[in-house]
Amino acid sequence: MTASLIDGKAISAKLTAEVAKDAAKLKASGWEPHLVSISVGDQAASALYVRNQRRVAEECNVLFEERNYPDGTSAEELIGVLQGLNADPRVNGIIIQRPLPAHIPVKTLQKAVHPLKDVEGMHPASIGNIVYNDLALGPCTAVASVELLKSLPLEIEGLNVCVIGHSEIVGKPIAFLMMGLGATVTVCHHMTRQVAVHSRAADAVFVAVGKPGLVTGEMLKPGAAVIDIGINRVNTADGRKTVGDVDMESAMDVAGWLTPVPGGVGPVTVAQLMRNAVLATRMQQEHYAAAFSAVQEQGVGT
Amino acid sequence: MTATIIDGKAFAATVREKVATHVTRLKEEHGITPGLAVVLVGEDPASQVYVRSKGKQTVEAGMKSVEHKLDADTSEADLLALIDELNNDSTIHGILVQLPLPGHLNEDLVINSIAPEKDVDGFHISNVGLLGTGQKSMVPCTPLGCLMMLRDQHGSLSGLDAVVVGRSNIVGKPMAQLLLGDSCTVTIAHSRTKDLPEVVKRADIVVAAVGRPEMVPGDWIKPGATVIDVGINRIDAPEKGEGKTRLVGDCHFESCASVAGAITPVPGGVGPMTIACLLANTVTAACRIHGLAEPEGLTA
Question: CATH classification of A30-116, choosing from 3.40.50.620, 3.40.50.10860, 1.10.238.10, 3.40.50.970?
Answer without folding.
Answer: 3.40.50.10860
